[in-house]
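Morning!

As promised:
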Amino acid sequence: MGLIAIIFFVGIAFLVILVLLFFGLYNGLVRARIGSETAWSDIDVQLKRRHDLIPNLVNSVKGYAAHEKETLENVVQARNTAVSADGVAATGQAEGMLSAALGKLFALSEAYPDLKANQNFLQLQEELTSTENKIGFARTNYNRMTANYNEKLQAIPSNIVAGMFNFEKRDLFELEDASERQAPEVQF
Amino acid sequence: MHDDQEPLKGLPSNVTYSSLIAMNKRNSAFLILLMNVLIAGFGGAVGVILVALGDYSGTPADGQNQGVQVADLVSGFVFGGIFGIVIAIIATIWSWFGGSAAILRMTGAREIVKGDDPQLFNVVEELSIAAGIPMPRVYLIDDPAMNAFATGRDPKNGVVAITAGLRKKLNRDELAGVIAHEISHIRHYDIRLGMLMATLAGIIIFMSDAGTRVAFYSAMFGGGGGRSNRGGGGANPLVIVIVVLAIVFAILAPFCAMVVRFAMSRQREYLADAGAVELTRYPDGLIGALRKLGGHREPLRHVGQSTAPLFIVNPLKRAVRSGRHDASTVFSTHPPLTERIQRLQALK
């Protein structure tokens, strides 16, 4: 009787520990995923802001440098592609192209003194530079959170729980080209 | 949102942000305790001196002056100590809730909105994203001097303030360096410690000032009769020893408090510089800003001894005017600028 009771209680204790461990692992995975998702929405806010600023920028440049049609069209097109891009990887690629197109536009603006003196243009340039920086910082945070989540998906023992509940690997946010990651060079 | 587990550049490899912040909070608690003990001890010492002086100068009507007893001194110490602690607790609570507002008011800072200076706002927002803290409020100090500081009790209540003089002189990268330094102070919880220390140091300064005055006036106007009355009345030697010790302590305590506080302040400046580079990944910005700050000769108008360590460089007249940003003594609130620049250059 005594022995059976002991085995019974040890078994119960063992089960309780297993269940608690399971809860802990599951919650850890959920927390890591929410961290990554929140960090993504921080990037998304900045990307939307950039998309909203670009039509104004194109309009203000048009008045001074109308014959730089190609560059302007490139920016508009890159923006439209970026707006409709879906998913982290596609967005990263499209946003990388947009950064490059914007960089070209700002480089070109150096040749137009009137444009560079335009208050509205300067304001937009500052906002876009800042938005680009914010995207960069938010991206660092997102990638750190996401790498942390992805690591949990593969490491023992949380990978077992992840497999049972269909936790999926999330993409890192990579801008298209390393050389295009930098904010456009802006001289004041 | 920021997991803070990465090792820091320019610091031992086992130092991470979370360990740094935890250490800073522990140190803060310890320093606050130490300051309170100093204040209590100081209050007690002043109490002892006042009891001794009061008796010394008092003229008992019956001429039966027995001299000061040890028991009188003990009660003087206890009352002085309790008085000091009560003041310290009240002041700590006050500074917890109203300290940053008081500091901002003292320096004449006013809160600005994005429309006033979009670039400054953008830079602050960028770096708060990088640091993973809420966007601090932004204040401008209408002063041609060049300086900046951060305050608040935690990152949720963070404030960065910059003088108009400094704002005007910096380009975007340098501004980012300065703001990143201030954001690092917020992120490291230096702002909480700085605020509480400013308050407690202020109390010691205030009490030593008040104590000196009371002692001075009671010696001036209360003297005469009592003195002759006692003649060679053979005071208890233990009493004399205690009174002398109290006087020595009353003189030394404010110095000790300052030395502890300034040492802490210097260490935190280095850490905030390292933290700034961690955020911007561009040491040249802060280096350029520090060079400009070092070449400047205009002291800040509304600043006192107790708030000086809060600023990015020493704002006091004697440091700024003489160009002695490079002095390094136990009484320096900030490390020498050349040393700070050298350490930043090592991070490149």
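The radius of gyration of chain A is 25 Å.

Hope this helps with the figure draft.
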